Amino acid sequence: MKEQLATFRSQLEEFARKHRNDIRKNPAFRSQFHEMCAKVGVDPLASNKGLWAELLGIGDFYYELGVQIVEICLATRPHNGGLINLQELCNLLRQKRKHDREAVSEDDCLRAIRFFKKCLWYRH
């Protein structure tokens, strides 16, 4: 069983290398990739310095997205106390990132919030 899991992880890494651009640019594909990883116990967001971060730059993507989410929450704080609807947040992120090639989905926002929360928690 361990051998099969190791083989699958190796194939998953090869898949990630081959489809790196699609994973970075396509939110639906990125979400499916995360689901596939979760099914075999691989968390591409577990470490900012691991193979996945190096291979995909995915940790940087979610960290940057997390910073932008915080900026939006702070900017909208006078209007909503810093609490914002997920759809509205995504719309504001899309406006803010309209020049970036990487689209953002609600799933990306949720992952970024969880990832950013972990980063902040580990640093304290």
**Alpha-beta content class:** mainly alpha
Predict the CATH topology: Arc Repressor Mutant, subunit A
| Sheet of most strands | none
CATH architecture: Orthogonal Bundle
- Any idea what the radius of gyration is? 16 Å
Distance N terminus to C terminus? 38 Å
Low-confidence stretches: none
Average the pLDDT over all residues and give the rounded result: 78
Helix count, DSSP H or I runs of 4 or more residues: 7
Strand content: under 5%
CATH class: Mainly Alpha
CATH superfamily grouping: Winged helix-like DNA-binding domain superfamily/Winged helix DNA-binding domain
> Tell me, what's the shape?
elongated
Helix content: over 70%
Give a count of the beta strands, DSSP E runs of length 2 or more.
0
Q: Secondary-structure element order, as H and E?
A: HHHHHHH
**How many domains comprise the coordinates?**
1
SSE blueprint and pairings:
Layout: H1 2-18, H2 20-25, H3 27-39, H4 51-56, H5 58-80, H6 86-96, H7 106-123
Helix pairs in contact: 5-6, 5-7
Pfam family, one: EAP30
InterPro entries: ESCRT-2_cplx_Snf8 (IPR016689), Snf8/Vps36 (IPR040608), WH-like_DNA-bd_sf (IPR036388), WH_DNA-bd_sf (IPR036390)
GO biological process, one term: protein transport to vacuole involved in ubiquitin-dependent protein catabolic process via the multivesicular body sorting pathway
What can be said about this structure in brief?
The chain has seven helices and no strands. The protein has helices spanning 2-18, 20-25, 27-39, 51-56, 58-80, 86-96, 106-123. It is elongated and about 55 Å long.
